[in-house]
Amino acid sequence: MLKPDATAPDGSQVRRLVSDASRASLVEIRLAAGQVSRPIRHRTVEEIWFVLEGKGEVWQGGRTDALKPGSRLVIRTGIPFQFRASQGQDLRFLCYTSPPWPGPDEAEPVAEGGLGRPTV
Q1: Which of 62, 76, 84, 117 has the maximum number of C-beta atoms within 10 A of its C-beta?
Q2: What is the tens place of the pLDDT at every residue in 22-46?
Q3: DSSP strand E in the chain: where?
Q4: Nearest CA to 109 among 62, 39, 36, 30?
Q5: pLDDT of 80 strictly over 90
Q6: Torsion from C-alpha of 79, 54, 31, 67, nearest 10 degrees
């Protein structure tokens, strides 16, 4: 992976792919093998994820789903979520955000997630 551009509020690494569109943005997200993100919720954006490599899980407001290459899912506005990468390989996925990511105040911390204590 190329050097990340930023660290997301959930602790994952972000590489910007498309940030100059007026109605959406596209980034690559990477979470190191065995790591667990911080639980957050979005105030105004919705995301679509497409998993490129690695395996893991995502928890969204009481529901947990497996992640593997080819998995796709929607992170809806206001729904708390947390994700983790399985041991052995980083989890890497494309993340399409609409509207475009507005800045650091977009993500709101959540007291507890469904995948345990964050490690990032």
Answers
A1: 84
A2: 999 999 999 999 999 999 999 999 9
A3: 6-7, 13-18, 25-31, 40-42, 46-53, 56-60, 63-67, 72-75, 81-85, 91-98, 107-109
A4: 39
A5: yes
A6: 10
Q: Please give the share of the chain, as a percent, with pLDDT higher than 90.
A: 88
Tokens of 119: 């490690």
Rounded Cα distance, 102 and 86, in Å: 30
Residue 89 CB neighbours (<10 A): 14
Q: Which residue has the tokens 């729904």?
A: 79
